[in-house]
Amino acid sequence: MPSPASRSPPLLLLVPFLLLLLFSAASAWKKDEFRNCNQTPFCKRARGRKAHSVPSLSTADISISDGAVVARLLPSQPLRQATDGDDPESDTVPPRPLLLRISVYQGGVLRLHIDEDASAPRRRFQVPDVLLPDLDDRRLWLSRLSSPAAGSSSFYLAEGFEAVLVHDPFQIQVRRKGSGEPVLSFNSHGLFDFEQLRAKKNDDEDWEERFRGHTDTRPHGPQSISFDISFHGADFVYGIPEHASTSLALRPTSGPGVEFSEPYRLFNLDVFEYLDDSPFGLYGSIPFMLSHGARSSSGFFWLNAAEMQIDVLGPGWDDPAAPAKDRIDTVWMSEAGVVDAFFFVGHEPKDVLRQYTGITGTPAMPQEFAVAYHQCRWNYRDEEDVAAVDAGFDEHDIPYDVLWLDIEHTDGKRYFTWDRVLFPNPQEMQGKLAAKGRHMVTIVDPHIKRDDSFYIHKEASERGYYVKDASGKDFDGWCWPGSSSYLDVLNPEIREWWAEKFSFENYVGSTPSLYIWNDMNEPSVFNGPEISMPRDAIHFGDVEHRELHNAYGYYFHMATSNGLLKRGNGKDRPFVLSRAFFAGSQRYGAVWTGDNTADWDHLRASVPMILTLGLTGMTFSGADVGGFFGNPEPELLVRWYQLGAYYPFFRAHAHQDTKRREPWLFGERNTALIREAVHVRYSLLPYYYTLFREASVSGIPVMRPLWLEFPADKETYNNGEAFMVGPSLLVQGIYEERQKSVSVYLPAGQSWYNLRNGVSYAGGVSHKLEVSEDSIPTFQRAGTIIPRKDRFRRSSTQMVNDPYTLVIALNGSFAAEGELYVDDGKTYDFEQGAYIHRRFIFADLKLTSVNIHPANLGGKFPSDCVIERIVLLGLPSGAKKAVIEPGNREANVELGPLTLRGGSSPDAITVRKPNVHIADDWTLRIL
Amino acid sequence: MGACLRISLTISCLLLIWISASASIPSRESLGIAPQDLSYYKSDVIKCKDGSKKFTKEQLNDEFCDCPDGTDEPGTSACPQGKFYCPNVGHIPLTTFSSRVNDGICDCCDGSDEYNGNVSCPNTCWEAGKVAREKLQKKIATFQNGVTIRKQEVEKAKQAFAKDEAELSKLRSEEKILKELVQKLKEQKERIEKAEEEERKKREEEERRLKEAERKANESKNAPEESSHDITDQAPEKLSELHNQDAMEDHHDSAVEDKNDYTTGTEISDNQVVGKVANDHDDTIAKSGHEADGRSDGSSFSHVEKQHVVEAQDNAVSKANTDYPGTEEELSSHVAEQGQVSDSTEGLSREELGRLVASRWTRENAAEGNDEVNMAKEGLEHDEDIREENHDGYISDSDEDHKFEDDDLEDDQDAEFGEDHEEPTDLTVSGSSSWLDKIQQTVNNVLQAFNFFRRPVNISEAATVRKEYDDFSSELSKIQSRISRLNEKLKYDFGKDREFYSFYDRCFESKQNKYTYKVCPFKKASQVEGHSSTQLGHWDKFDESYRVMLFSNGDRCWNGPDRSLKVRLRCGLKNELVDIDEPSRCEYVAILSTPALCLEEKIKELQQKLEDMNTGQPSAHDEL
């Protein structure tokens, strides 16, 4: 029998052991916590199928109805039989026919809709409020079906494109008219499977799924959908965020030469310390894929908010002997919902983006301050800390526009409240920032503390506004505040109620300079399956959480954004940063890539991740500069600022356990380097704002993969290290410690000017360049004009009246073009035409400012801003002066520096003080 | 009409004068230029200060940046790297960044940075200057008084240092003498003991013989009766006694000795283990007792009492989790054994799971409040703290001068030594030598008094030798520990005037909310909350030429760095810890005001500044 004395030592040993256990547990990605495909029955089933192994469907009763093609899909064989036992849940009852509807929209968009008929035991969920409300107005009224060959019907899709419906086995193909060259095809490999809803046959049947102690009751049984999509003429496919990857193009997940890989998973998850390269799903999901090849670009979007898994099949997956050429096959699998899919025919990549944002919306025009630099940390502790950080920026002459407060500013994680001790005077604090033209952002998450004394909880529970658990009670999960419930933001009424909470009266302590950050809206539930909400939780309209999971954060983002819009009486553009997102989130604000890590690989992965977000509509995105977890070495931090200064959304953020990393804490040299990086962004603000305008009109992202600008240059197709900012700037990141030189590929067709020294480089070649610590390589493309503001201020607010600099990079024929868009930076007056939009055209030694503001729009934005300096790159020497018309004024031409930094050499031809107004028409001739 | 005109003219003239006097916008040529720099801009062609270029007078402040270093645009915002000088007459002149010029925000109290008319900045220099001057005057006064105090402190430090050095050298000579004495006494003692030993053996043998004789005599007398009574019980014993008697007698003494000094190996180790285990156990009990007093056990009890059963079970599970970490299977089986059902399995209640996952981001523990692991850790730390505090032995009394006090555990016993030898009056060399002479005399007396040739050994004399030996060797070890402590102290850098000498035995405290911060220069710094104490750092060094004290390698932060503390020193009349803060997690910053930082040369600088402020006072203001 052990004596008490001999029992105690283990207890002592236990303490350090336990500490160790918790410590090590706290520093690694929890792979086991998340389901892989094999643990996900629908994915396992669908992935196990071989081409043409699924019982095929045939099309019947094809007709045109209401301007769309409609048909019924029937089993080709009389009885559906379980094949090779791959579908243990398959029913022997003959399936009901599926209803098919194909419609066509302006601009080369085909929509395929497949659902069960009305006799289904339950209505399957269709994601509401994602497609633009006016989409139906742009539908083309189909009137006629042709029959190009026996067993198929074809119809018009767009100029030069048609769609073909193959009857048996059912297949859809989008192809070029005339040549018949296919662009996209659906079910050409016969992998289309639609698990129809059915009643539970007997109570013994076990539909439940279990994962790590969580039980999903799955009351409606299996209901997954899967199909294959082929992208023809494609060299690569891109898109379907969000995954961390160092590759821009999607790597194959299956097929010859691919060792085991998971499919790309689209399931919004709060992944702790995510890896920098993994197909596992992160915070947001956009089921939109683009393909690009030398001959064709196309896109495919599946509007479905349930868990999705997507396989990109390597060439030869179906026939290793004869790998497909110029074609990429993909398999799409979803747990629930319907087929509501869109095919975009391109054929230029920018066309595909226009087509996609044509149905899900273009990015909202941000406020100008939001395009500037944001300073964040978990947490700026109190008002004193806020004041000190604010003063630190002034003391070191580093501009910033927004200071952020994370969860600790609240009273016990009750959002819309303030910690009375730490933030006794929030309005005064915001007022002090606002006096310097700065703004503040506070965090508001969707989990509501279950505390009866908290008004939000009280109202929400009384009104029944929470998501319910499978038993019908308010779902109770664990998050920052402890026991929490989650608003059912699927319900428009609840979203309206939520939006009201942002009014100045309701949000006590808020001021007009305060904006909002939505975090944890995947939703993150600490004690839920995969750190999220159980799939059998119930939303408004008896919708299961599994059916809308990926869109939950989207609705929350939408509600918050509408709240800020209401707060400002519809006049003030909202700024809401969200972590979770779905197709269409671009209409409601910015996103970032979540809790990244302070290491070089995460710095590298940030570029493909942000480019992918941009390609799928979410142009206003960025990664935490410096890395959220861990402490970056000063060199990494500096490199991150130098790269982050070009992210569309430029914010530094850090975990609460990290050392303070305000820019001036790493010695004078590093402070100067970071100041310079931030200054670069501020000087480019006019250019960025112009690009945001372009994005809000056309959906073309601010930060672009090289191939978006150079679709014919194959070298660029999988370049995830460099990127374009707009059409004119190329930026190459530095992703290695103490890197001495870097190889930069400059796309073909143009020459490029190094923005550090004005040296010109040939395009179509990789250049080995020396790496300096003071900047990362940036180049201006020949033939472009970039507007800058080279005077520096505390924040963008004080730059409004500052004069411009134009940097003109001439191409081989001494010509260049560029644009400038200016509005008030805050309101929606631009919708009534209150903006300046100029095109600058340089040709024949003459610079002309052309008004491209549509005359019929009316409205006017007054500005006294002038151009104080024009820098000309690539102009042969000999220019003496410039003559400005109207007025026949003269301006001096001399050699000047490319940038106004100490030590920069005067190596560019500069027009001194032309002082022409940006709002006016004028010409400037170089003599 | 004419009068009217004249009046209005006068008014406008006055107005003009007033405007020119008060608005006082410098001309374009001097805008933003510091007076000492004006001559640089005198010539017609001016060089950029970085040598990159030249510019003409027309290009000075013409709103176009010609010199990238900003030389040509001191008065405008055109050059990003430029500097703008505001005279701030009535207050301190300010050199600010060009980015502040005409940005709509009043930065200079004279408003000279905002001259483009977009915003009007009132001249607040006189008011602000008055406040600043008063503040500066106060500061100068503080410095002046502080300098005096500092001088006294430095003088004291000088004496204290001399005293400590003297003491050290005295102690060293004492040590040397004592060592010899102790050695002599030891030899003496050993000889006595040897003699005693021999004597004892003899005596015992004598006694034994006597007893033997007696026994034999008795035996022959009483044998029949005894055997009839106790034969069964006593016979074996007696037999063995009989058998072993000789041997026993021979080895009796040595056996006893053996038992005392060299007990067999196994016995020793067993004993030690048992002892250690028992100690550990006691520690554990003490710790868990402490915890119970603190939070964790108490709270779990209250849970059982106050909350419904499920939560109590959750708690039990949580406890099980902390007590027996292991694989989740083990945990769940543990739960299963107890027949507990929670709606989430894997051994964790839903709440536990939530906390556990949250803790990844917060690094806080998963259990309720401050969980048990933390508590256990704190408990351990606390125990260590107590030990260490005792060891380091500082006192928190800050401002008073106080004499040295021994705090080492071993020194507690020898207070008399301290008293005898640490009074400053006792520190003269003659005093010490007389004391030494005295003891030397005593020892010699003892040694001489002892007569080695007298047998039997005089017991009282032997005892005297033993006592003297014990006394002197403990005296010696005290002296040695005192020497090592003095050595330890004297190796530190106490500043260029040893102005921080008195800090060695001091701690400075500051209470902030629930914490008490305790800073002990040259030793350590800690944060005390109730019974638990966290090490913020051990003394590292002075930094920034004695303006900063660094403490590093404190307790490790949960998944973070070792704690550290930076104490910024500034001139003040008292030694006072005025502010403490944790700007970065586990990196603390404090401000200590102390006369040690009141440097004389700084006064001149401050006075010059004040003079500048006073001479800059605008005469126009007086007229108004």
UniProtKB/TrEMBL annotation, chain A:
Keywords: Endoplasmic reticulum, Glycoprotein, Glycosidase, Hydrolase, Signal. Residues 699-786 form the Glycosyl hydrolase family 31 C-terminal domain. GO terms for cellular component: endoplasmic reticulum. Residues 100-311 form the Glycoside hydrolase family 31 N-terminal domain. PROSITE patterns: GLYCOSYL_HYDROL_F31_1, GLYCOSYL_HYDROL_F31_2. CDD domains: GH31_GANC_GANAB_alpha, GH31_N. Residues 1-28 form the signal peptide. It is found in: Endoplasmic reticulum. Residues 363-691 form the Glycoside hydrolase family 31 TIM barrel domain. GO terms for molecular function: alpha-glucosidase activity; carbohydrate binding. InterPro entries: Gal_mutarotase_sf_dom (IPR011013), GH (IPR017853), Glyco_hydro_31_AS (IPR030458), Glyco_hydro_31_C (IPR048395), Glyco_hydro_31_CS (IPR030459), Glyco_hydro_31_N_dom (IPR025887), Glyco_hydro_31_TIM (IPR000322), Glyco_hydro_b (IPR013780). It holds the Pfam family Glyco_hydro_31_3rd. Pathway: Glycan metabolism; N-glycan metabolism. One of its GO terms (biological process) is N-glycan processing. Belongs to the glycosyl hydrolase 31 family. This is Probable glucan 1,3-alpha-glucosidase. It comes from Elaeis guineensis var. tenera (Oil palm). The lineage of its organism: Eukaryota, Viridiplantae, Streptophyta, Embryophyta, Tracheophyta.
TrEMBL record, chain B:
Residues 262-272 have a biased composition (Polar residues). Residues 191-432 are annotated as: Disordered. Residues 1-23 form the signal peptide. GO terms for cellular component: glucosidase II complex. GO terms for biological process: N-glycan processing. It holds the Pfam family PRKCSH-like. InterPro entries: Gtb1-like, LDrepeatLR_classA_rpt, Man6P_isomerase_rcpt-bd_dom_sf, MRH_dom, PRKCSH, PRKCSH_N. Keywords: Disulfide bond, Endoplasmic reticulum, Signal. This is Glucosidase 2 subunit beta. It comes from Elaeis guineensis var. tenera. The gene is LOC105044925.
